[in-house]
Amino acid sequence: MQHRLVIIGSLYENVALVKEAKKRGIYTIVCDGYKNGHSKDLADKFYDIDIRDTDQVAEMCAAEKADGIIGSFSDLVFEKVTEIADKAGLKWYVPADKLRYYRDKKAAKDLLRSIGANVPENRLIKADFSDEDVSDMEFPLVLKPVSGWGSKGIVVVRDIAEMHELISATGCETVLAEEYNKGGEYNITAFLTDGTVNVISCGDREKTVSDEHSVPRLSRIFYQKERHYDIIEAARDTLQRFADATGQQYGVLSMQCFYYNGKLTVCEIAGRILAYENDIIGFHSGLNIPELLLDCVYDMEHLKEKLAESRNYVPPEIYARLYFFAKDKKNIANMDNVFELCRFEKLTDDVIFYNEGETVNNSGNKSYFSTFSFTADDKEELDATTRYFYDKMKVYSEDGENIIYPSYPDPTKN
User: Fold this and answer.
1) Is the full-model pTM beyond 0.90?
2) Fold of domain 182-316
């Protein structure tokens, strides 16, 4: 009998997943609220249903006689798939009653503390807080919506006066106030089999400060030839304790963390692949990410075999991805430089989210203006290529203004 798979999410990152599923002979059904989603034309069938209407999506799954569901590329999609799978009776790697540990920042940090993991000093703060509520916290502080996603609504405050002034910018009655982390920042990706964590990659994560109160923007992630074994071992230990506490037995588990003076501090743990890194995570680990996600649904033995094969894999190159952001509400008149960068010799992937004539909308579903993946033989070449892209990446508005935010290191990390 042919498998019938529902894929929640139709944007760029799902294209390879649909192609891999069809190559395996799986009937693919793509669903979300984007009528022109990249992967919908590739699927056997698609539905234009807002995934936040989990009852309607669950009813669709039942009507289509689906025997599998996937949605592992964003926090919101992961959250809704967990709810949909529970309602539709489909197998999924996180039960609905454990979702809060992956999506509620306060619940997650409380759990991490309970299992002995290091987390930044943090607490829930109401909009009408008093100075005493944060008198023992060290500035700068990051203010986060409790159930936010994609760095939306996050602001950085340097002192108590700024905190009073800007807490309303989050739009929340209660926010999570967190001390700013020190040290290098890293992305960790893992898959579980039989309750055991298998870390497949560790990427260096770099940010750029765009303005005084915004959280630093992601600007570069790169995966080196030499693995960060000390960080990976510390991350594996923490992820294993987290999985043991939540009961997760298989599927995706990722982490954003900081490592400073031999100490790992957890920023976030998520049940998804980190956005737009599928390709470079795959190259670095010698694995095919869509293949692993499908194995989580239909072929656990094959998943175990592939993870075992990758443990001694040595990546032949450095793999990197650059992220660019544009100023909000600006009209795009000229993208010639972007098109030229797309012809760069060692480019492995590019995603351009806008076209000439469009207006930048940073509050919509386009998290970035563009991203570029490339390879490098060594760190020197990596940095030279990065500088070339940073210098070349310019997009002009109708009045001739370059609307791309500049990229440079976060000075608080130096």
Assistant:
1) no
2) D-amino Acid Aminotransferase; Chain A, domain 1 (3.30.470)
